[in-house]
Amino acid sequence: xxxxxxxPENHPDRLRWNERYRAHDGGFEPHxxxxxxxxxGLPEGPVLELACGRSGSALALAAKGxxxxxxxxxxxAMADLRKRAQDKGVAELVHCVLADASEYRPADDFxxxxxxxxxxxxxxxxxxxxxxxxxxxxxxxxxVPGEHEGALPPWHIRxxxxxxxxxxxWTVLAEELIRQGHRRFxxxxxxxxxxx
Length: 196
Ligand SMILES: C[S@@+](CC[C@H](N)C(=O)[O-])C[C@H]1O[C@@H](n2cnc3c(N)ncnc32)[C@H](O)[C@@H]1O
Known about the structure:
globular; alpha/beta
């Protein structure tokens, strides 16, 4: 499914996120983008989730019979997701891959590629290239409003950037700016042209 090597133990993202996951339990709720994608309609085929964490989306999609390739740099999150998938009886369908999302090279075409609460431009390019014709891309990232001027905080995008990065010929089905407390998230759902 992938030829990408595991991230080294001193990979800065792996260290940072392992620490966070060790400090906090939970986080198995499905993301609204996974249900929004299902409502829009998905072609046959597997789902790829990049930077999945303890993905409730992967578990929910697998519970509906989808094969999910779940990629994350944190071995702690991957171990927790694998265990939860076993407990839920969907371990056969959730393939956990320990990898840096910016280096992951998908071997399949996917009905849905999902990444939530994450931003990396190389991973976005990889995600776009992994969607099969008629399939969907769902992405959510920390955002500043579109009118924000000046440098962006780390891991943020400007609202509007995601839709602008969706390739020509695709259809943007939804683009939203979500406020949660002091944080904002830009969310986009888009379909690649092709048979549904
Ligand atoms: C804010 S969490 C979001 C987790 C999940 N997608 C969600 O919506 O709850 C960010 C996730 O990105 C993962 N991550 C950070 N850097 C990464 C990288 N370079 N490659 C793959 N995953 C990464 C972290 O381990 C963490 O699970």
